[in-house]
Design a protein that fits this description.
The chain folds into 2 domains: about 100 residues, Protein of unknown function (DUF541), domain 1 (Translation Initiation Factor IF3); about 110 residues, 2-Layer Sandwich (Alpha-Beta Plaits), CATH 3.30.70.2970. The protein is about 35% helix and about 35% strand. It is built from 4 helices and 8 strands. The strands form 2 sheets. Strands 1, 6, 7 and 8 form a 4-stranded antiparallel sheet that branches. A 4-stranded antiparallel sheet has the order 3-4-2-5. The longest helix has about 35 residues.
Length: about 250
């Protein structure tokens, strides 16, 4: 075998031996941590934010004798709704068609007498998802959409554009909550607390919480749909493992 090949193999072998030697050391270190007397606790906390945007689904559904007539009616109403949204200041990037369907409509009452279903017409639906960044306009836009032909949908999700600060605050409070629980348990058990061995961050979720109608809603037109935006509560949960030791 050429000398160069032997040298390469020797270096590779040494590298493999180094990795093999390091793996048991890592395993030993992990086992040592696992073997230490410890207490495991969980902590939870929440942080609330007033929402600053909303997602609204608005649907136009038309039923006519022909699919063409139903589609024409749906198209006309949805075009009017889109135009109204743009005139109200909603950006095109915040307007998205999220659903569309064409379905035949049958009368099945004749089946009781052995007859076939009777075609009655066609139903066409078009759904628009609107991201509204100015909540003071929400009630008026809902009212306008219904006036222009929206007759289904309307489900609303209140969101925050940048909730990261609130989530971080909840996480920090959750860690403090876990440490406080650990202190109580350690005192009850007659032991002391040592260093933190592990911290696991669980998923943070938001939950809408009802509250009184926001002051901004009072600025809306008297004909606007009443809207209560409430608060979004961001909940954080952590698991903490802390070493314990005899009290001095």
């Amino acid at each position: 075998m050429p000398r160069l090949s032997m040298k390469i193999l020797s270096v590779a072998a040494l590298g493999a031996l180094s990795v093999a030697a390091a793996l048991p050391a890592v395993a030993v270190a992990q086992d040592a941590v696992a073997a230490r007397p410890a207490i495991s606790v969980s902590g939870e906390a929440t942080a609330a934010l007033v929402p600053d945007m909303a997602l609204v689904n608005l649907a136009v559904v038309r039923t006519e004798a022909t699919a063409r007539a139903a589609l024409d009616g749906s198209n006309k109403a949805m075009a009017d709704v889109l135009d109204a949204m743009k005139k109200a200041g909603v950006s095109e990037r915040d307007l998205q068609t999220s659903g569309f369907f064409i379905q035949p409509q049958y009368d099945y009452s004749g089946e009781n007498n052995g007859g076939p279903p009777k075609l009655m017409g066609y139903q066409v639906g078009n759904t628009l998802t609107v991201r509204l960044r100015d909540l003071s306009k929400l009630g008026v836009l809902l009212d306008t959409a219904v006036t222009l032909g929206v007759n289904q949908g309307g489900d609303i999700r209140f969101l925050n554009d940048k909730p990261e600060a609130a989530i971080d605050k909840a996480r920090a409070e959750a860690v403090r909550d876990a440490l406080a629980k650990a202190k109580i348990l350690a005192e009850a058990a007659g032991v002391g607390l040592g260093e933190v061995l592990e911290i696991a961050d669980n998923a943070a979720v938001s939950e809408p919480v009802p509250m009184a109608r926001m002051a901004m809603a009072a600025k809306e037109s008297a004909d606007a749909v009443p809207v209560a935006a409430g608060e979004n509560t961001y909940r954080a949960s952590v698991s903490v493992k802390i070493a314990i030791k005899p009290k001095p």
